[in-house]
Sequence to fold (223 residues):
Amino acid sequence: MQAIAETLFDIVYLISVVTIGILMIKGCKGNVQYKLFGIMAVTLGLGDAFHLVPRAIALCTTGLADYTAPLGIGKLITSVTMTVFYILLYYVWRLRYHVEGKRNLTVTVYVLSLIRVILCMFPQNKWTSANAPLSWGIYRNIPFALLGLLVILLFYKSAKENHDRSFRFMWLTIVLSFGFYIPVVLWADTIPMIGMLMIPKTCAYVWTVVIGYQDMRKQERNE
Fold:
């Protein structure tokens, strides 16, 4: 039952975010903010597919234990694409609120992203092992969490200052995604049921993408 339910959920999720992303890229009418948001959505979907597709196959066949290597490699790729996702989201923020300059802020975003990717590449992560160390799961997620916190603060502050109702909950979607993700990093290996939190975490990312799409449609109606 879990295999069927989780697989169906993942299929709907991947198709939805990639479709919304493509629609935004095709329908942006030259608006760079929406085009970037569409690229961000496609990056999210395609990146997650590297982990979710092997997981679905494993659940529907011989089990997760027989797919340790593909799942690990998929998690590595997803870790990198999620970092790119937040870099793109940072630039959406800059475009939406017409932010100029702030070189130090941009450097901070790239430094945190680079540290995250470098940490992901260390062999000590043991991505293809069934006994990947928790310590490295924490190390590589520290700069990622800091990057997420930075983006949360930027959207919260800017949406409030600009009375931006369309993006007023953007910060909350990121808070929720990390709120559901962190327990999985810390305890999923010892308490497998904690892994179910990836479902609401995924829903939070869908909400992020839908916010951008709805705003684009709103702008179309107002033209």
